[in-house]
Write a structure and sequence with these properties.
The chain has 505 residues and is α+β, with helices and mostly antiparallel strands. Among the domains are: 115 residues, Beta-Lactamase, CATH 3.30.450; 154 residues, Histidine kinase-like ATPase, C-terminal domain (Heat Shock Protein 90). The strands form four sheets. The protein has a five-stranded antiparallel β-sheet. Strands 9-11-12-14-13 form a five-stranded mixed β-sheet. Strand 13 and strand 14 form a beta hairpin. The radius of gyration is 52 Å and the shape is rod-shaped.
């Protein structure tokens, strides 16, 4: 079986699956507890080794003091001496013991003192002196018939842990060097460590037993705190689960604290506002589109039903067929406009910006609308600065100008005029289309750029409009970063101004 980082793939996948199936608060508690467990384990380990080191350092300091005391009593300068016989006069026996080594067993039986019982005392020292051959020259009576451990390989002062009667002792082995740099023997001193080892073992047990209790308690507390902290998230989920298209006006209750959850709730509420607004727009758009398509279809159907009732004159048939073709053409224009808006909304429409002469494109748009204006005896007043060059998409600009001029002609009275001015305004180039129609109320000026919006709320389409022209103008202008300004005076007319971002040299 293949392995990844020492863990079988199946086991690793199982762990990942288990983590993914856990609740958020359990995962938060698990991650927090895991990190804390590592930290606590490191702290416990550091404390244990620190205590262990301090204990051993105290024993070593005690042994150093004994070395100094013995050499002082032997009256050696420093640690220099002549021979081992100098230690004969040094009192190396514990005061609680007898004075004759041959009487040690009898004394131990009489007093009840043994080597094992001495291990529990903290003021006992074991001293042993050996020669350079490893033979015992002298030892303290409390060692009885046993001997202290000795390692002849170490020629320098050497601290180590050994055992005496099966119990741990801390020892120091000091070489006895004369003035000729010759090692004549070794001084070995030991102190019992039984009590200290018991303390260290008890500390180890406390750590091992308290560790799982601490971790389990911490996990439960972390899970409870995490559950309390993410309670607003659960409210968000509950609110979202209850939302349908019929109750999009519901919102998430804001938490009292202005923290990340407050920002999350505010962001979701703002997102729901946009969804509701978009849903309402699409709902209105569907209703308007249905109405705009249904009207010409109903007119065509009614006309055809009249035609089939009985034979008619040729001229009557031709007029009705011409009427039906007009309605079909109106539906075709409407569908083309809807497709253009749909392409823009899906961001699939892009502009091809290039430097063009604005006056030339404005004049071309006027010529394309000339025959429509002639039917109403409407004239065009042109004021064109042919030196102005702007950055725009020629095709989109043509559609914008045609829509604006078409609206101006539609809503201008018979025999009036429509003005078109292209001129420089400081660092900008402007194109102003002005009619002499009935005007638009001030509170409705910005609404005219909405889809299917008509100032005439009766939805009268006698003018031939679909209510999409200015919506298309706004979308195409936005693609080219062209600003639009509109102003109107009742019974005097409306002016729409295109403001181009900069004049090209």
């Amino acid at each position: 079986m293949k392995k990844d980082a020492g863990i079988p793939i199946t086991a690793k996948g199982f762990l990942r699956k288990r983590l993914n199936s856990m609740s958020l608060r359990s995962r938060i508690a698990l991650y927090y507890t895991g990190a804390t467990a590592i930290l606590v384990a490191l702290v416990f380990t550091a404390v244990y080794f620190l205590v262990d080191r301090v204990v051993y350092r105290q024993f070593d300091d005690e042994l150093r003091g004994e070395i100094t005391e013995i050499f002082t009593e032997a009256r050696f300068p420093g640690e220099k001496f002549g021979n081992l016989s100098a230690f004969s006069s040094v009192d190396i026996d514990d005061k609680n013991e007898g004075e004759d080594e041959d009487e040690d067993d009898d004394k131990s039986r009489r007093t009840g003192v043994s080597g094992e019982s001495l291990q529990s005392r903290g003021d006992v020292e074991y001293i042993q002196i050996i020669d350079d051959k490893g033979r015992i020259f002298r030892k303290s009576l409390n060692i009885f018939r046993d001997t202290l451990a000795f390692d002849i390989r170490h020629k320098e002062r050497y601290f180590f842990t050994a055992s005496l009667w099966g119990a741990p002792v801390r020892q120091v082995q000091v070489p006895l060097v004369n003035s000729d740099k010759r090692t004549l023997g070794f001084l070995i001193i030991a102190v019992p460590m039984k009590n200290a080892i018991i303390v260290l073992h008890d500390l180890e047990k406390v750590f091992f037993l308290s560790f799982p209790v601490i971790i389990l308690t911490l996990f439960l507390l972390s899970r409870a705190i995490a559950g309390r902290s993410i309670r607003p998230v659960e409210k968000v989920i509950a609110t979202a689960e209850q939302m349908t298209q019929s109750n999009l006006d519901r919102r998430i209750v804001m938490p009292p604290n202005r923290d990340e959850l407050y920002r999350l709730s505010a962001t979701i509420n703002s997102f729901l506002d946009r969804i509701q607004e978009a849903f309402q727009r699409e709902k209105q758009f569907t209703a308007d589109a249905s109405h705009e398509l249904k009207t010409p279809l109903a007119a065509i159907k009614g006309t055809l039903e009249v035609l089939q009732r009985k034979p008619r004159e040729r001229e009557y048939y031709e007029s009705k067929i011409q009427y039906c073709l007009g309605e079909v053409n109106r539906m075709t224009v409407l569908i083309d406009q809807l497709l253009m808006l749909a392409r823009h909304e899906s961001t699939s429409m892009t502009s091809s910006i290039e430097t063009i002469v604005l006056a030339s494109h404005a004049a071309d748009a006027v010529e394309r609308l000339r025959h429509v204006a002639d039917e109403k005896k409407i004239t065009f007043d042109l004021e064109l600065d042919e030196t102005l060059r702007v950055a725009a998409d020629p095709a989109m600009l043509g559609i914008i100008l045609e829509n604006l001029l078409s609206n101006a002609v539609k809503f201008s009275p018979y025999g009036s005029s429509v003005s078109l001015a292209v001129k420089r305004n400081d660092a900008f180039a402007t194109c102003v289309v002005r009619d002499n129609g009935i005007g638009i109320p001030t509170d409705r000026l910005q609404n005219v750029f909405e889809r299917f919006y008509r100032v005439d709320q009766s939805r009268n389409s006698a003018t031939g409009g679909s209510g999409l022209g200015l919506a298309i103008v706004r979308k195409l202008a936005d693609l080219q970063k062209i600003r639009i300004a509109i102003s109107s005076v009742k019974n005097e007319g409306t002016a729409v101004t295109l403001i181009f971002p900069g004049v090209q040299q």
